[in-house]
Design a protein that fits this description.
The chain is built from four helices and five strands. By secondary structure, the chain is α+β, with helices and mostly antiparallel strands.
Amino acid sequence: MPTPSSVARGFIEEVLNQGNIEACGKYFHEDMVEQVPMPGQGPGLKGLKEMLTGFRATFPDIHWTIEEQIEEGDKVVTRFEWSATHQAEFFGVPATGKPVKTWGMVIDRLEGGKIQDTRIIMDSLGILIQLGAVPMPGA
């Protein structure tokens, strides 16, 4: 049985970095639960794939780097950074062509070697500031 950290690493490399969205089923259960879904994200694996397809269209050169992982039992916390170029609309912000870099953490809980529920916490405000959609505090 794969470890929670190896499943998370596999997902980040194959799906997020290489863009193989169809491989999500290798890492997630069909009825997976996104505890903090992106606005408009539908339920289950189908909703995850649709969200990732749109995210990848917005940031086609996205690259995720794992900074740290902590594993306990059936859970893994992954601290990450990702960088990309903004090439399509993101939360109402038209494509800017600007580079973006952000950080976050995700908590995954596995059942039977696949992720059953996940919770991502990401610096979305920082992304919007980098895109010029929100003024820099104090500016």
